[in-house]
Design a protein that fits this description.
By secondary structure, this protein is mostly helical. The protein is built from 15 helices and 5 strands. It has a domain at 1-82. It has helices spanning 7-16, 28-34, 43-55, 61-76, 83-92, 98-103, 105-114, 116-124, 133-143, 145-157, 161-179, 186-211, 220-229, 241-253, 258-275; strands spanning 215-218, 282-286, 292-297, 311-313, 316-318.
Amino acid sequence: MIQTIPDSLLLRLLDVRPSTARVGEVQPEQLLNAVGIAFGASPDALVKGIALLAENNSGNFAIDAPFDVAVYELLDGFAASDPDLVLRVFRETNLRLLPWVIGHAKEAAMVLGANLDRFAVLLVALDGPEPTPERIIRQLAYSDGETAAGLMLAILDVGRGDVMTGPLNTIVYDAYWSGLGAGPTSRLDSAGALLIALRDIVGENRTAGFIGEVSLITCPVLIAAISRLSTGHGTSRHWNYSQARHLERKTVASSNHLSQSSEWLHHLARDIPSIFPHAGQIRTLYRAPHSMFTVITFAGAILRPKPNTPVSLAGQPFSGALY
């Protein structure tokens, strides 16, 4: 039976026929043990074994997935005790990074948060169709806005501001569509958490400097997300997603509820300055007779530098306009 073959033969199969070494009868634990991947292994042996397994992949994600997952789960055990080792694995092997960030978000944030500067160097050096640095940042932002914000700033420090702007644009864009019901509402929280984390880490002035001018065209739910997530500055109305969506549905259905919408926007307009002291004006747009959208321009020190004034990102001229 193939389960009883010695490790030496299994290693030979891994070298000449990687897919055969991963057939259904071979369990992930058996193959990992054969290449020296175990929780009690030395760091060098662990890195060597993972490198061997990743280098000799089958070329089929579906075949490789159970074995990769077993490696990710083993690495999760080191996330708190030895985050440097986990980062070393991704730096010195071809183990796929993106599936780990997606499927093991808590552990990924723990490891990357402890190694922001070194991971920033690793991230900007990625070369290939997957994963791109932008996609890693974007995925991290969906699970941990504070860690993503710190990583963005670390990337700025290594002179790659261009890697930062794409994810910011995409995250805000995703939040816009989520607010319209075309995406998971969790992305609204993610956008709010990321903007607030950037502001809290570096302050409003620097945030304005490296983001430049941003117009967030979105439904009122995004304002509620930013308001609710801002520590110590919740809105007096404490609107949540279900209330906001219910109000929007009623607004579309009947003009009798426009006054309620106006009242809500009035309270938000009053509360936003307490969250972002230099927030710009809030105004209502009508795409259809009673469908409501809100344009928020965070002016002044939060997201709007002086018009037409290029900002330097680690020595690189950058205008920073995101739409």
